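Field log, afternoon session.

UNIT: design team B
ACTIVITY: writing a sequence onto a fixed backbone
BACKBONE:
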């Protein structure tokens, strides 16, 4: 491994990203089986998705619609006529021994997505977005790695076989230099935001609805040719996308600097150790013996339909970011941090649920970002909703809890103790502003600290801090500090100023 910064002094990285999006259609791509996640193994199956001889596939119209909308949102051209193709290879979780995909006739092509990285815009060019079907899922039992090597036996679940996928492939992304890992992360994040805004997929990386393959190659600095690439498969979080790119840059650089050749291969990403390991040597496309699928009619969307779908697109993401920044009054840096943390949608929903923009930003980017980081998960995977965050801020605004107590409310909600109000109640976190209880605590503090009390009587109002501290300690931080101060000054006959 070569140090990352040193690697980028010697080499220029080229990135390529292939993202698979699992569509949220009710049924599968080529049959009427439910496309829902989970279910008892092999219950969402029929002769077509089991690949039985003689079964005939039919294209899911809703999946074509989603594919066109994704293509349009990525500024692609939409094919007037295109076909599916058979991609031939053997895999136990693909019983037909070919995957129905698209080859030289993708439904969408030649687009781009503008990605914001630390205030700079990178235009990521999209080569194509094509339709295909997912495979089944193998579980390798026994052995230590969970992989097929060393396993005692393997189980196959075909529930996922035939679920519609859109594969979005970028052109090589060059010129990002040291920002390459951040560009890769931002691209996947902003693509996910777009997919969610389109409403075409749940886009949950932890459930495999959105899976990224990261291609990377290095070329000597200043050279305009591309080096040999590696393809790291199924990287399943934004953070891992960034880490995988960093890792591969350092790994390639060390190989090239030693005068060796990078092997063109797929690699596995290991979340726990943050490294990639060798998978299989990657064959070129020709080896799949693609040919047009004879059992399916071509897809030929009319220009009128495509224009109708264009009318259903959500706001352009770049324009939307600019609009939200203006509405929320965020500085460039605040906006950049919000986008970079993958918190834009969460902050937006929290504000929609009633929180002030700065408060929404503060909770997601400090308190909750820290917790997500500690647990090694994405912000969106935390067990708290934007509505709950907004409610906790409302409790602060209403004076029921202060910031410190609010953190304990977050603890409770994240621990599954229920809604914020229920946590405040169950944990007894509400601030005491009832004069009876406060007055008794103030009397105790005065009695316990006669010297301080004397100073305050003598006009040293600043000394009140020590008594406030004593009261807060006795009340376990749950006293209204402003009211405590007033009571102390009142009781000791010391006015302000
Ligand atoms: Zn089926």
């Amino acid at each position: 491994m070569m140090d990352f910064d040193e690697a980028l002094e010697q080499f220029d990285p080229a990135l390529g990203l292939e993202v698979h999006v699992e569509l949220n259609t009710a049924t599968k791509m080529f049959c009427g089986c439910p496309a829902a996640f989970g279910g008892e193994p092999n219950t969402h199956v029929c002769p077509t998705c089991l690949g039985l001889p003689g079964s005939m596939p039919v294209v899911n119209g809703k999946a074509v619609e989603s594919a066109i909308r994704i293509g349009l949102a990525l500024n692609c051209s939409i094919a007037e006529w295109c076909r599916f193709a058979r991609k031939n290879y053997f895999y136990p979780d693909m019983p037909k021994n070919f995957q129905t995909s698209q080859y030289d006739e993708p439904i969408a092509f030649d687009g781009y997505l503008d990605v914001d990285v630390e205030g700079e815009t990178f235009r990521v060019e999209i080569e194509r977005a094509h339709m295909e079907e997912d495979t089944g899922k193998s579980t390798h039992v026994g052995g230590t790695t969970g992989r097929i090597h060393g396993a005692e036996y393997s189980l196959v679940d075909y529930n996922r076989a035939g679920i519609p996928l859109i594969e979005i492939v970028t052109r090589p992304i060059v010129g990002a230099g040291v920002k390459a890992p951040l560009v890769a992360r931002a691209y996947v994040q902003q693509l996910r935001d777009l997919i969610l805004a389109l409403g075409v997929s749940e886009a949950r990386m932890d459930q495999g609805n959105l899976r990224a393959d990261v291609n990377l190659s290095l070329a000597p600095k200043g050279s305009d040719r591309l080096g040999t690439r590696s393809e790291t498969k199924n990287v399943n979080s934004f953070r891992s996308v960034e880490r995988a790119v960093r890792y591969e840059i350092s790994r390639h650089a060390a190989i090239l600097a030693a005068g060796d050749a990078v092997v063109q291969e797929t690699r596995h990403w290991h979340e726990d150790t943050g490294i990639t390991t060798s998978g299989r040597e990657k064959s070129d496309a020709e080896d799949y013996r693609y040919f047009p699928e004879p059992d399916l009619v071509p897809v030929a969307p009319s220009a009128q339909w495509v224009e109708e779908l264009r009318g259903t697109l959500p706001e352009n993401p770049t324009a939307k970011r600019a609009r939200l920044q203006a509405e929320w009054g965020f500085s460039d840096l605040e906006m950049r941090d919000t986008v970079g943390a993958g918190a834009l949608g969460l902050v937006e929903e929290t504000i929609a649920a009633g929180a002030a923009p700065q408060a929404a930003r503060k909770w997601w980017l400090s308190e909750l970002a820290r917790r997500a980081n500690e647990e090694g998960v994405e912000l969106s995977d935390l067990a708290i909703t934007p509505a709950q965050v907004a409610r906790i801020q409302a409790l602060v605004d209403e004076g029921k809890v202060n910031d410190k107590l609010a953190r304990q409310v977050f603890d409770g909600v994240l621990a599954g103790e229920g809604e914020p109000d229920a946590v405040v109640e169950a944990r007894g976190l509400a601030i005491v502003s009832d004069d009876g209880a406060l007055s008794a605590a103030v009397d105790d503090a005065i009695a316990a600290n006669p010297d301080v009390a004397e100073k305050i009587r003598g006009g040293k109002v600043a000394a009140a801090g020590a008594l406030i501290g004593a009261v807060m300690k006795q009340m376990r931080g749950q006293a209204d500090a402003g009211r405590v101060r007033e009571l102390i000054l009142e009781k000791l006959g010391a006015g302000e100023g």
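LOG NOTE: The first helix runs from residue 4 to 10.
NEXT ACTIVITY: expression trials, pending approval
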